[in-house]
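Collaborator request, handled under Task 6.
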Amino acid sequence: MKGLAGLLLIAVAAAAADPIVIAHRGASGYLPEHTLAAYAMAYAQGADYLEPDLVLSADGHPVALHDLTLDAVSDVRYRFPDRARDDGQHFVVDFTLAELRQLRIHERIEPGTGEQRYPGRFPADRGSFGVVTLEELIELTKGLNAVTGRNVGIYPELKFNAFHEAAGHDFVAILMSVLDRYGYQGADARCIIQSFEPAPLLRLRDEFATELPLVQLLGENAWGMNDVDYDPMYTAEGLATIAGYADGIGPPISRILTGVDAEGRPVVSALVQDAKAAGLEVHPFTLRADALPDGVDFESLFELLLKVGIDGVFTDHPDRAVAVVQRLRQELDDAAQKASASP
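Structure tokens returned to the collaborator:
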């Protein structure tokens, strides 16, 4: 009986310690975000999913870029000096794909100063990287799956849907056309769609009747991304509403680990517990080795999140997250062998 009880405990632990590792903008801790090089590196590092943020070109092509504007990650100001809007910014949707192809993509900088957001990352003045379309990312992923025998998925984020609708683009229909063309259909298609806006997710579920998993990203009202009121979404009632159209949530890590107490112990919110009670998976963002809370290392933070019960994590450093998962799996295997050998 002792061996059986041990096996049962191990089985429970294994179920809670088998997360997916989502390469946030590719292996963006090592190479410029959303470049084919960053995606290829993330694949090689063992990521389970490659995440492209998607915005649209003027001619309706989904391209992998995080912002509505190009100024922080490209040489657009030098390549197209007369194409800024009145606010001085160059918007992706104002450029055709052919024009976007002329840009050099580089490590993220602060446009006002030219300083890198993360100084220790790939030098912004080096390399020759270009804009990546959703189709190109899919071709890369499927090609590598074919030669490796793995089944790495994609995790596209449909960004700024309301903005694109106002610009005359049916972003949801465009996205689904591409995914359908490449056979991403059904719950097991290794494609998860995420959005900070509920409207496109509701439309995907209702109008398009997609069976692809959907994830509602949760932001903060102070970020000013859109007109969504996020505060109610963090409540048990809000999570129950989300469960009516989505399969999971993607909250900031700071909404799960909210700080430390007087003894220096982490303070954990009820968010993961409440989400699980509503039937939702939890994939928090973003685990970065070069942007950690004081006194906390990458591996310890990830393990703590796993103990809280998350189902996956967005990370700029997929190799380090994969190493933690592999180590924990090995420890569980070793414990299972010992338990099965016990009388």
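The cover message to the collaborator said: "The chain has one domain: 2-68+130-341. The two ends are 7 Å apart (CA to CA). Please let us know whether this matches your experimental observations."
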